[in-house]
Amino acid sequence: MTIVVGNLATAEGQAALDAAVAEAEERRTSLVVVAGPGEPGRDPGELTERLRAVGVEVRLEPGTGDLADDLVRIALETGAELMVIGLRRRSPVGKLILGSGAQRILIEAPCPVLAVKV
């Protein structure tokens, strides 16, 4: 079984990655990190080495640019036991509507989703 997380160079992306690493360590399972093409601010080699250094088996998967679709597709392909996403705080009006990507993930996910709020 695996845990699937997106690789985004944002505060919510980092929070999701940190939570996914913690879950992978606790569950003693592997981690699949999905990155969009040309995701800025991340060196895939450095990320892989950092995660392996903490004892997490990690595999990087290139994304197509639609992270919600990529996460759901890869979760299905890998038989993921968990997906981890990051959410940012929203204005009072924004709280009424979840981000469209997060909403799609929650609706289409083939497994439980851990949402980490920043």
From TrEMBL:
Regions that span the bilayer: none
InterPro entries: Rossmann-like_a/b/a_fold, Universal_stress_UspA, UspA
Highest taxon, organism lineage: Bacteria
Originating organism: Myceligenerans pegani
Name of one Pfam family that matches: Usp
Family indicated by similarity: Belongs to the universal stress protein A family.
Name of this chain's protein: Universal stress protein
Domain UspA: 16-117
